[in-house]
Specification:
elongated, 3 helices
Amino acid sequence: MDPRYQEAKRKWEQFVQEETATWPSDKPVIIVEYSVFGMGWEENGIYGIRGKVSIEQLQSIEAQLKTDEEIGEQRHMLKGEGDYLLAVTYDDGEKDDYGRYIHSPYWDMSVIGFRTFDEVMARRVVAEEKH
């Protein structure tokens, strides 16, 4: 295996561990790995998760990411094409005294890591050469 790939993978995993080690347990955080091939592309999607999450929640997170892309809200994907590591928590929204939502529930997402497709493709080439 290519030493550059091994080093890049080690750094990525170490980064994830360091970022998640100090999070409070009272607000569960889900780590989502999301690939962006181009804004609004159908192929964009979640390819990895860490943390406890149901299929329905995962579908909801992906739907919110895709909706943000469709309306041109690039707040999460500012670095362009590549793999994004997102810290995701659920916000229950806020209601007024009459029980009406002031703001609806949503998934709060923060980008905590990014790698380009050049880095990703280098890994795939090395894997193909092994076989």
